[in-house]
Amino acid sequence: MAEGKGEASPSFGWLTVLPLLSFFISEEILRPVVHKQTDRATAALERRAVSLRHPKLTKLERLRIWLGIGAGQGVAHSCLFFLNTVITSYRGTYYNRDRCPQMSYFLVAAISSCTMFMVLSFAMVVTSVVYESGSGVTNPGTISTVKGANLKKLIPCGLHGAAVLTSFISLMEGGCIVSSILNVCLVALTIYLSFKLVSCLGKAAQ
């Protein structure tokens, strides 16, 4: 019986890859669409405010809107992750019980879920900054400038992909400790990039 459980555990663990990968692909496909629709909604809101003689939205208020959208995605992911945790921990059948006994499964799940929440939240802020700076290229004829703007648009995808890859590492033998450390570093990097890009955008607007 013990051997049967040991053989079933790895395959069961890798079944969690498919939902996580599907979420990542769908999120990144929809990212430009979400940005475009949010821009339209924000513009309509601003026109309405002007018609009512209210001040226009400030940069900070726009960033708050994007942070709220990202936080909504993060909460949705956390809820799905919670349901996955409940299912995989039913009757004590933790997928990492044999692979990484050094850390509690719930601690690993909490760190991973919080990381994804933070990354998705701030990735939308980064999305708003890099897409706005990309659309505001003053000299579109310069190839290097256009390439640089397009490469910056990959930053949110890279942050999200790094979070997903770190989640995959936790499925490996003894990978929960490494993934937990990487998750903390990834959150710090995401917040730093967000702060740096927003600061650069603020300086450019002056």
From TrEMBL:
<feature type="transmembrane region" description="Helical">
    <location>
        <begin position="63"/>
        <end position="83"/>
    </location>
</feature>
<dbReference type="GO" id="GO:0007219">
    <property type="term" value="P:Notch signaling pathway"/>
</dbReference>
<keyword id="KW-0812">Transmembrane</keyword>
<dbReference type="Pfam" id="PF06105">
    <property type="entry name" value="Aph-1"/>
</dbReference>
<keyword id="KW-0472">Membrane</keyword>
<dbReference type="InterPro" id="IPR009294">
    <property type="entry name" value="Aph-1"/>
</dbReference>
<comment type="similarity">
    <text>Belongs to the APH-1 family.</text>
</comment>
<keyword id="KW-1133">Transmembrane helix</keyword>
<protein>
    <submittedName>
        <fullName>Uncharacterized protein</fullName>
    </submittedName>
</protein>
<keyword id="KW-0914">Notch signaling pathway</keyword>
<feature type="transmembrane region" description="Helical">
    <location>
        <begin position="103"/>
        <end position="131"/>
    </location>
</feature>
<dbReference type="GO" id="GO:0016485">
    <property type="term" value="P:protein processing"/>
</dbReference>
<dbReference type="GO" id="GO:0016020">
    <property type="term" value="C:membrane"/>
</dbReference>
<feature type="transmembrane region" description="Helical">
    <location>
        <begin position="177"/>
        <end position="195"/>
    </location>
</feature>
